């Protein structure tokens, strides 16, 4: 059983919008990501996605509903199929929880923003 | 999309060893629990279980391996089928992540410690 220190995990990489794998269980993955600025609009057709803000502030823009604002210590789940755009005003440290294999850009193609999930050791 | 504030979630109940449901996604559940003292030895035959300590300290005793100590900001996954006993020295606020329907006492019967997972609104 590995022990993961969340603060230390965020110290191991600098790249924004490139989630790192922190833990795997039950076919799901816990990832850590640094977010800054606006991402691309996308959805995950088959995956609910949990955002948990550890540090900073994150806005989840939604096409069909008002934006949601998450501060440090707050989390929310974007349901499968719901188009969303995460926007961080400044640097935000965020934990993601979603099925293994979920791509960061979901169904959005040709954005140049798709990243493989790297392990924290890379 | 509901926004859950983790600190506020822990303010909504006092009972120890009785997880509350904070979020559901992909057939999994994020629960918050207050732990104090020693729980019962048990395993979850089909469920990996993530422990994430938000406040306090938690020891995960394992039959076949050295104990693991988790402080605030640290997490670990107990694999399915691995017998374990959580022990909190003082009050620990912990987030659990596991498949929906996972019982707190797993395969341990007759302990008197099994609790239904209540919603935070109860």
TrEMBL record, chains A, B:
Residues 110-122 have a biased composition (Basic and acidic residues). InterPro entries: Cupin_2, Germin_Mn-BS, PKS_Associated_Protein, RmlC-like_jellyroll, RmlC_Cupin_sf. Residues 38-96 form the Cupin type-2 domain. Gene3D superfamilies: Jelly Rolls (2.60.120.10). It holds the Pfam family Cupin_2. PROSITE patterns: GERMIN. Residues 99-122 are annotated as: Disordered. This is Cupin domain-containing protein.
